[in-house]
Design goal:
By secondary structure, this protein is α/β, with parallel strands linked by helices. Helix content is 38%, strand content 21%. It has a seven-stranded mixed β-sheet, sandwiched between helices. Strand 1 and strand 2 form a beta hairpin. Helix 2 packs antiparallel against helix 4 and helix 2 crosses helix 6. The structure holds nicotinamide-adenine-dinucleotide. The site of nicotinamide-adenine-dinucleotide has 26 residues, from helix 7 and helix 8.
């Protein structure tokens, strides 16, 4: 495995510390406390964010309530133009944002740049929809006019994870704003900087104050306060199942709707008639990209027995090309987000060995650590000889760990793919397109790829079956989640 850095980035200095952002400006935390922000590539603290408490959240939400009125006072086309300007400015500042995101998360600079541009694309896409949300006329009675209009909720609360923070901020905020809501974002305490800078950029782009707000802090403090606040009328959450469950309990207590996106253990099914080289290339991407910290990562590699050996050879060759290094040097993969996450992945590597699976690649720390011992680096790791009942095949590891499981028949492959508590994404590799469609129909997953494996496009609805959650992000489907339907019935006298 090559671990040398590939390119040098232009530095951009993060602020020494970040307050919250609401009422159109930076705000000091009420209790004056900050959380240090670590660079996962070096282990150094390079910035800090405000440690928000219920009082900070209350102030931000109160401001968002005023912001909601300001936002709705604009014509839909004016809201769309402002969102388009956010997209234009963000794309123009992509280098600055990418550098910040790379330091904050450890991800390779080019991946961070793509994430920033994806965020810009969310704003661009939903900017175009802002003045095209049509109502409906219901032909029910000759003496009545009945029509339905979609209306915003008011203030929506968004709890974000740390694996793709800036793009996930856009994924939640852009459709919510498009539907006419104002938003309060609570980014993960491990990687909040891009979301904070986005809030300031929105003001520069002409968005009225109070429309897009950010409160930072720990989940059990700022996160719960956001879900519990009486003026927050809808929540979206992305993260772990355990936390998602708590958020749903909070939402249920208040009888407010929630979208939850909770990760997965997605199958990547390779049949003997597949293009094995291409499948191996995309398999590498499926479980190694972003150091495996992707909710839709294809981590269960179900491979038809007849081609297991040639597929493995292709995949091992692919893994041999992976470079590991500091995010800002733009390797194939950077470190994982934190020491805790690294320990969790290392523990799963041990569990896999104890369960009887065999390591076919990786499993340890890279021999060459790019910046001393401080970064949270781990090699891309592949287990073979596994079964679908092992913990490494059932539990979300959230690291660059793939597990190869053989199968004999199509029916067995589908049964094994569906034998999981999760159902976020799935991939099928075959040259028999009829079989591809047949299997897509049989898989319990919110997004299925045939002869590919990448959740491309802000236009394609994305979300889970089973414990991977419910509600849909991306595309027009998400607009429905951020608006509520009002039916008006008029008696006109006939
Ligand atoms: P988490 O679910 O605990 O945190 C995600 C977000 O929820 C953060 O913003 C956090 O501050 C907030 N939060 C935490 N507790 C909360 C609470 N009680 N109420 C409201 N908000 C709360 O995730 P984590 O601890 O950062 O990571 C743990 C595991 O979660 C990972 O190993 C991975 O398996 C999974 N994960 C999944 C995704 C995904 O995209 N689906 C993203 C990140 C993490």
């Amino acid at each position: 495995m090559d671990t040398q850095p590939r390119a040098a980035a232009q530095p951009y200095q993060a602020r020494g510390s970040y307050g919250h952002f609401y009422a159109g400006q930076w705000q000091d935390p009420v209790q004056g406390e900050y959380i240090p922000i670590e660079d996962p590539s070096t282990g150094e603290w390079f910035s800090a964010c405000a440690r928000g408490q219920a009082e900070d959240v209350a102030r931000a939400v109160a401001d968002a309530q005023s912001g909601f009125k300001r936002w709705m006072a604009l014509e839909p086309r004016q809201r769309g133009r402002i969102m388009a300007e956010v997209a234009r400015r963000l794309a123009g500042e992509a280098e600055k944002f990418a550098y910040l995101e790379s330091r904050d998360t450890g991800k390779p600079l080019s991946v961070a740049r793509d994430d920033v541009l994806t965020c810009a694309r969310y704003f661009e896409y939903f900017a175009g929809v802002a003045d095209k949300q049509l109502g409906e006329v219901i032909p029910a009675s000759n003496s009545h006019l009945m029509y339905g209009v979609r209306e915003p909720y008011g203030v929506t609360g968004h709890i974000l994870p740390w694996n793709a923070p800036i793009s996930q901020a856009g994924r939640g905020a852009a459709p919510a704003l498009c539907a006419g809501n104002s938003v309060v974002l609570k980014p993960a305490e491990l990687a909040p900087l891009g979301t904070l800078e986005l809030a300031e950029l929105c003001i520069q782009a002409g968005m009225p104050e109070g429309v897009l707000n950010v409160v930072t802090g720990y989940g059990h403090e700022a996160g719960t306060a956001l879900v519990d606040h009486p003026l927050v009328r809808r929540v979206s959450f992305t993260g772990s199942v355990a936390t998602g469950r708590k958020v749903l309990h909070g939402a249920a207590d208040r009888i407010i709707p929630a979208t939850v996106e909770l990760g997965g253990k997605s199958p990547f099914i390779v049949f003997a008639d597949a293009d094995l080289e291409r499948a191996a290339r995309l398999a590498r991407k499926a479980f190694v990209f972003n150091s495996g910290q992707i909710c839709s990562a294809g981590t269960r590699l179900l491979v038809e027995k007849a081609v297991q050996q040639p597929f493995l050879e292709c995949l091992q060759a692919e893994l041999g090309q992976v470079t590991v290094g500091r995010g800002i040097d733009d390797p194939s993969i950077g470190p994982v987000i934190s020491a805790g996450q690294l320990q969790r992945i290392q523990a799963y590597v041990e569990i896999g060995k104890q369960e009887g699976a065999r390591l076919a690649a990786g499993g340890g720390r890279p021999a060459y650590l790019p910046d001393g011992q401080g970064g949270h680096f781990i090699e891309p790791t592949l287990f073979v000889g596994a079964t679908n009942q092992m913990r490494i095949a059932r539990e979300e590891i959230f690291g660059p760990v793939g597990v190869v499981i053989p199968f004999d028949t199509e029916a067995q492959a589908v049964a094994m793919a569906n034998d999981s508590e999760y159902g976020l994404a799935a991939g099928v590799w075959t040259s028999d397109i009829g079989r591809g469609h047949r299997i897509a129909g049989g898989l319990e997953a919110g997004q299925v790829y045939i002869n590919d494996y990448q959740p491309i496009g802000v236009e394609a609805p994305f979300g889970g079956y089973k414990n991977s959650g419910y509600g849909r992000e991306k595309g027009l489907a998400s607009l429905h989640d951020y608006s509520q339907l009002k039916t008006v019935i008029v008696h006109h006298g006939n």
